[in-house]
Structures are given as structure tokens and as C-alpha cells.
Design brief:
Blueprint (H helix, E strand, L loop, with lengths): L1 H5 L1 H6 L4 E6 L3 H10 L8 E5 L4 H5 L3 E2 L2 H7 L3 E2 L2 E6 L2 E7 L21 H11 L11 E3 L12
Length: 152
């Protein structure tokens, strides 16, 4: 999350109007997490809870690998980032493995695919904002770390 805070200006320059972090958690936990990460006053970053995992399931991003599920003990969301224009997903990255194919189902050890630099490069590769869909809101949606104990 700190990388997205640092990249706010460059993301806005690419046409990103909002970055939404969500996790399988409730709104109160997400609010506290936003405060702890000092993003609660950001004009670009929004924190959202998905307490029942409905959004996570609808996006096909439920983490079902047994290792993180065993360690965490509750449902989680894969670490992913999307770039949307007018509700259309134009970029979708999931952090599930390392650069040499190492298994990382939770994306904790190799999150690079969903960090701001990777997303910015993918957005730039699409071309000029507005040339891909008929105007409107653009959103980058990285998955926030889940659980009150995880802070980064």
C-alpha cells in the first residue's frame, strides 16, 4: 500500500481517478487499516471491506490454496490488481508466483506484478486514456492485505 501512496501523482497523470483496496474483512477493520497506513485522508485511495467475500468470489479471486488457508484459518482474497475503464477490466494481474516460477499463492513473497510500477507500465502500454473506451471513470483495484495482523 505505501507504494500506491507514493505513486498517487504518477497514477493520476495516467488518468487513474481512484485506487480501491479491498479485502475479505469488515469496514471497521479496513478503516483502521487505512488510518494505520496513513491513507485515510488520501483523495485517490479508498479502502473497502468485503466481509462475506461476495466481491472476491464474483471476481474469481478467492484464495483456495491449502497452505495460506491453513496458516490464516479464514477465507482470503488473492493478491491482485485490476485497471478498469467504464467498468471494463483492461488490465488484470495476479501475484501467485515468483519470477522463476516459485509458488506464492498468496502473493506475499513476490507481489511485484501488482505493485504500482507494474500497473503503470501496463496502463501505459494500453495507450492514451480515453482511447480505449468512451470516457469515464478509471479505477485501479489492488487487493489489500487481509487480517488485522498483516500490515504490509
Amino acid at each position: 500500500m505505501p507504494g500506491y501512496v507514493a505513486a498517487e501523482a504518477s497514477l493520476q497523470a495516467l488518468g487513474v481517478e481512484e485506487v480501491i483496496f479491498f479485502a475479505v474483512n469488515d469496514g471497521a477493520v479496513m478503516g483502521a487499516f487505512a488510518h494505520a497506513q496513513r491513507v485515510d485522508r488520501s483523495r485517490l485511495i479508498t479502502m473497502m471491506g468485503d466481509p462475506s467475500g461476495v466481491v472476491t468470489e464474483a471476481l474469481g479471486m478467492a484464495l483456495t490454496h491449502p497452505t495460506p488457508m491453513y496458516k490464516m484459518g479464514y477465507r482470503r482474497c488473492k493478491r491482485f490488481a485490476m485497471y478498469l475503464e467504464d467498468g471494463v477490466i483492461l488490465v488484470h494481474h495476479v501475484a501467485e508466483q515468483g519470477p522463476d516460477g516459485q509458488e506464492d499463492p498468496a502473493g506475499d513473497d513476490f507481489p511485484e506484478a501488482v505493485l504500482p510500477d507494474a500497473m503503470a507500465a501496463a496502463i501505459k502500454a494500453l495507450g492514451e486514456p480515453g482511447s480505449r473506451s468512451p470516457g469515464g471513470r478509471t479505477t485501479a483495484t489492488p487487493r489489500a492485505p487481509t487480517g488485522a495482523k498483516r500490515c504490509g
